[in-house]
Task: inverse folding
């Protein structure tokens, strides 16, 4: 089918992973499980104000720049981080600007922040203020609708920049491990994180050897490393797919940015199996071998997927009510059959309770006599009405409805909102799907119509074909969990099944 050759349909997760994980979570805010170390022994830490410029590289190409500024205030510190990035994804050149301003207390804990990400098509802003045990966050998407959320915090919240300042003010010993709960702005929730101080190493920065202390920052299976020189300056950061940030002068950071990047991020992240899959639309089952990652860290066991050792079997769901799959029938398997009711509620980016979403959902399904027909109508509407365009931003349903453009993230988020507004439990699932001889990162939906059934609005599929390999479900993980797969997972084709 021609759709399978239009690889630019499948995009969103890669941008969220590479850009947001590669740059954003190092510059946003987190909540440590331990108390801040800056006020230990009743001493007040002092960090010399200043700014650090960094050049951003993706493999051998200069992709942009970042600058961090630290200033002392009467009550603590102000940290301003900005980054500009130019990159290739799905054969299209994208430009993205990010900015964060954080007000920190004297112990480097967070008091308030402002964040923005701008990419031309979709802009997103968030701001927050700590009030006791609550972080109140206000977001504004491309649709210009403002939303406020209260997020409870258990201990003093810290920005990622605040953590680095804490390490700078009171350097920990080599081998020190610190646990954190890192805030993921793409999901508005805290995720487990770990800091590991590796010790002094010699690294190349702007062509010269530099001795610096290596610190690993890990979220799930995703690990990035920063190197801090004896003066407390971060001189190098590295992440997935050859992304790195090197400290230098302002001129060094801003000069020579590649205008036409060669490296396509989606192709760099894609997984090429050992052999091609033929006639994928006709398959009723697929068995693949997985290696290179910790399989227990991901959501491979679902209503249509069974993991046996390193072999994953995917079986396409029957749509009749007298379906035969034991996994679908088993009410005692909550890990593969989550409570449908929880997927009727609105979420921070799935605004299923908004009047525009409710009215639209009702108009789309008004002539449908059962839930399956409603699902088909909703999927077809999103498929036909939303232009397929790679979109580097944080998606939400109202913004997608306003712009009517987006990649698989936008399709899945809007479809989830419409499904819930129509009274059908709907969740978002992310993982890999097979296109042009490789598995590419993708997002789609799962509906409960008496049993769970997958659907893909990008390809107008109900159910989705069996090359959709579910890796992460929306109820318990964020994009940083999926990021740990990139560049590590290998796939072999064990068996394809036809009717």
Result:
């Amino acid at each position: 089918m021609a759709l399978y050759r239009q690889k630019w349909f499948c995009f969103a997760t890669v941008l969220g992973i590479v850009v947001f994980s590669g740059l954003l979570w190092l510059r946003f805010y987190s909540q440590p499980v331990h108390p801040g170390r800056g006020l230990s022994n009743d001493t007040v830490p002092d960090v010399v104000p200043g700014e650090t410029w960094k050049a951003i590289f993706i493999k051998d190409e200069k992709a942009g720049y970042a600058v961090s500024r630290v200033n002392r205030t009467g009550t603590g510190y102000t940290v301003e981080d900005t980054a500009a990035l130019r990159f290739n994804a799905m054969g299209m050149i994208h430009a993205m600007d990010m900015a964060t301003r954080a007000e920190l207390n004297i112990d480097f804990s967070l008091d308030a922040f402002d964040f923005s990400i701008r990419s031309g098509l979709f802009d997103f802003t968030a701001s927050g203020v700590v009030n006791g045990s609550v972080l109140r966050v206000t977001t504004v998407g491309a649709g210009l609708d403002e939303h406020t959320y209260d997020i409870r915090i258990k201990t003093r919240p810290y920005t990622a920049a605040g953590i680095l300042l804490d390490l700078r003010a009171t350097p920990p010993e080599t081998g020190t491990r610190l646990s954190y709960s890192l805030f993921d702005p793409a999901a508005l929730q805290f995720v487990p994180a770990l800091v590991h101080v590796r010790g002094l190493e010699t690294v190349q920065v702007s062509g010269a050897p530099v001795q610096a202390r290596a610190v690993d920052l890990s979220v799930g299976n995703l690990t990035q490393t920063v190197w801090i020189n004896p003066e407390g300056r971060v001189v190098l950061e590295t992440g997935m797919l050859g992304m790195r940030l090197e400290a230098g002068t302002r001129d060094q950071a801003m000069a020579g940015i590649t205008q036409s990047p060669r490296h396509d991020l989606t192709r760099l992240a894609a997984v090429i199996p050992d052999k091609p899959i033929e006639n994928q639309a006709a398959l009723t089952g697929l068995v693949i071998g997985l290696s290179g990652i910790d399989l227990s860290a991901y959501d491979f066991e679902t209503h249509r997927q069974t993991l046996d050792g390193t072999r994953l079997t995917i079986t396409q769901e029957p749509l009749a009510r007298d379906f035969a799959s034991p996994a679908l029938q088993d009410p005692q398997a909550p890990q593969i059959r989550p409570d449908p009711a929880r997927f009727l509620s609105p979420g921070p980016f799935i605004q299923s309770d908004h009047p525009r979403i409710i009215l639209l959902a009702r108009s789309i399904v008004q002539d449908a006599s059962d839930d399956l027909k409603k699902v088909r109508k909703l999927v077809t509407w999103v498929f036909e009405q939303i232009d397929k365009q790679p979109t580097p931003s944080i998606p939400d349903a109202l913004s997608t409805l306003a712009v009517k453009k987006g990649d698989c993230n936008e399709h899945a988020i809007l479809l989830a909102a419409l499904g819930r507004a129509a009274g059908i439990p709907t969740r978002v699932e992310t993982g890999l799907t097979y296109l042009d001889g490789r598995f590419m990162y993708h997002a789609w939906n799962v509906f409960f119509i008496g049993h769970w059934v997958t659907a893909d609005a990008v390809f107008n599929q109900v159910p989705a074909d069996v090359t959709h390999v579910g890796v992460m479900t929306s109820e318990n993980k964020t994009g940083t969990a999926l990021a740990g797969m990139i560049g590590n997972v290998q796939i072999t084709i064990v068996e394809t099944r036809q009717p």
